[in-house]
Amino acid sequence: MSNSDEPKWAAGLAKPPAWRSDGTEIVFDSPWLALTRHPATAPTGHAADYAVVRFKNVGTGVLPVHDDGTVVLVGQQRFALGNYSWEMPEGGAPLDEDPFDGVRRELAEEAGLEAAHWAQALTVEMSNSVTDEIGMTWIAWGLSPAPIAPDPTEIIAVVRVPFLDLLDEIGRGTVRDSLTVATAYKAYHMAQNGGLPPALAQAMLGRV
Question: Which reaction is recorded as catalysed by this protein (predicted)?
Answer without folding.
Answer: GDP-alpha-D-mannose + H2O = alpha-D-mannose 1-phosphate + GMP + 2 H(+)
